[in-house]
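Question: what's this shape?

___
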Amino acid sequence: MYTPKYVAQHNTRQSCWVIINNQVYDVTSFIDEHPGGPAAILQYAGKNATAVFAATHPQGTLEELPKESNLGPVQYSPGDRQPKPKPSGPTAAATAGDKIASNTKPHLHTIQNLTEFETVAKATLAPNAWAYYSSAADTLQSLHKNLTDWSKITLRPRVLRNVSKVSLRRNIMGHGSSLPIFIAPTARAKLGHPDGELCLVRAAARHNIVYAASSYSSVSHADIASEIEKERVENLGVRYGQGALAFQLYLPHDKEKVGREIIAKAKRLGYTALIVTVDTPVLGKREADERFKAELEVEMFDEQGEKVPRVSEPGGDEPVLRGYHSSALEWDDIPWIREAWGSGPLIIKGVQTAEDALKAAEAGVDAIYLSNHGGRQLDYAPSSILTLLEINVFCPEVLRKVDVHLDGGVRRGTDVIKALCLGASGVGLGRPFLYALSGYGTEGVDKALQILSDEIETGLRLMGIVDLSELDPSFVNPAELERDLYPVVRTYDLYN
């Protein structure tokens, strides 16, 4: 009999069992293959993981495990903490991660801008998926600043120029991209569509841009690599380009040993750039997502659900609250990461100040990636466009030393142009593509890229620009956004 007490004894990497929907699963052999990383499983080793599983995985996930992984039903005894009976009706559908049917979804051909994809996604996604995709830290101030700071910069167009031919090509992360944008790393795309990240990689290949795959992809990184090769064979030389893959890395708790293994695997699979995320020493408090999980636990159990887990670093004395990734990652780790990765583009993602941008430029990386994680980490963090302006003011030499990429709140082609004017090499978008695939699959992402391409090309022509290399700060007026830098001026002068 698989009792909860017996299952609880299998709580290690060497023997890892979990309970999901009253069934016991031995997931020991799957730990290192889990798209979300080993820690996502190990923190629930020996426990009932039904609530968190339902909130973060689409239907059909369990069927993908080997049949022998299902050991059988759990047997409860009087006094055991038991799940409530499954709710019926609409709640059951939401709990299972089912998409809510929508009879009013607009035809894809009628979608005119990226914001409309968000409206469709909100109406069609299951509650758990919408909570995960749209959530941000605490008061949502970082998220709101991401969206509003772009409007504080105006454009300064030139007229009477021959703009009959325009080039949108840009070298991004070592790839000759057909557009100055890339698909930023986002996790759990299968919450929005059964094909998940495959929708993103297909569109990236067809438009010849970079797709940065998240460590927490809901499709295996091997399948992502295979899909881009498939697209290249089918489409190269016909209509589309070929695209490129970057690998976004979260360093695990055993940062060097396991980190080297993950990096080596990414290289074997053909990922050509490595993006090391450095703004997640702990996970931000994303209330909408956590509220959904908490409500699900209350529905499933008579008692309160599990507390936010604390995870210990190897050799650490105290466990770290929300420490899903390594909380010990530091500047001294860059050399071994560079050595493990080799000569391909190495990028640090999550830079949010001019001081760290300058330090990163001197640390031996090829590019820095300005991002506040879509507003999902530190509340009141600066927007990436404000950080880019800060670099222009305090240490413009960074823009000459390394490439600078950014993401966060980009919704229009003119946002992309503004970033390029201030020295950005490439501009990433995350949520808009998740919303596009949620409503329309691969065709939705393809349409979103068409919209962006159209907006960028039209914007350049109206500005009198025929090549991206012509863009410089003289084409923008950031005076309103510069006001937000005044306190930084005093601080920077005081400590530097």
Summary: DSSP finds 19 helices and 17 strands in the chain. Confidence is low (pLDDT under 50) at residues 87-102. The longest helix spans residues 431-463.
